Amino acid sequence: MRRLLDQDPRREVRRQGLILDRLEVGFRNSIAKEIRRASLEMADFFEATGEVGIPRDHVRNLEKAYLSMAIVAVNTFGARVFNHSKNAHIDLERKDFAETMTRLAFGYIGSEAIRKRITAVADTTRNQIIRAVAAGFADGLGQRGVAGYIRDLVPSFTQARAGLIARTETHGAAQFGANEAAKETGLKLRREWISAEDHRTRDTHAAANGQIVGQEETFDIGDSRLMFPGDPNGEAGEVIGCRCVVGFIVDD
Asked: Is residue 128 situated within a structural domain?
């Protein structure tokens, strides 16, 4: 069995993980910055009015961050597949390939599943502030005290959320990019689910390790059907924090 990427699946997981770690940093910082900005804006608004408002441009700013992340992740992981395919004499030029990957990244971010996730991030930001207001009042704080309490909380819940969002979303976009790039090569490929296989790997993902499906078939992961690891259309319990990767088997 000949694999398109690394012939050792365990090494391939590590290599993809290292690339994802680098991509995650920039996206995590941009997401944290936006959540922090929106949260502090709501704290200021609450101090002035006593109400929890809707932060300006929060969804739009999140969309911009998601799009920048997707363009980089899709192109980076797509390029890996492209580079490993060159020896198979594919006809696609590099310039055309990069343009195709960028177009696919736009489509990925515009999909209903990703738009729902962006909206959910924005809703969670506001709900965190609403809960903080309730907790502040329960502790006997006045309006100004509650606003200060919110400002004190912002750094802690911002970093934790941004880290999980960044890992989940860069992973999904990267696996999507690799999957779409494989289609663009025109090669006859099957796809392989490769699990991280450590103490943090969920049972359903460990059980799926080595599962091989056709180019247009889905993987059976627990009760879910995923097109690739991190598929945003999948159940949250099978997607959030996933570290599995997709590999490709060459049908000579």
From this structure: yes
Q: Is 166 left (phi over 0), alpha (psi -120 to 50) or beta?
A: alpha
What's the rounded Cα separation, in Å, for the pair 251 and 216? 15
HSE-CB at 235 with a 13 A cutoff on CA atoms is 11
Residue 239 lies in a domain: no
pLDDT, block means (10 residues), the chain with 252 residues: 88 95 95 97 97 95 97 95 72 73 96 96 96 96 96 91 95 97 89 91 94 96 95 94 94 77
Tokens 């889905």, located at residue: 218
Give buried/exposed letters for 204-221 (b at 16+ CB in 10 A, else e).
bbeebbeeebeeeebbeb
216 belongs to a structural domain: no
Measured at the alpha carbon of residue 36, what is the angle toward residues 243 and 68, in degrees to the nearest 5? 50
Q: What is the pTM of this model?
A: 0.92
38-60 residues labelled b (16+ CB within 10 A) or e (exposed): bbbbbbebbbeeeebeebeebbe
| Residue-range definition of the domain harbouring residue 106 | 8-186
Task: Specify if 129 maps to a domain.
Answer: yes
The count of domains in the chain is 1
- CA 78 to mean position of chain CA atoms: 15
Both tokens of 50, joined, read 């006593």
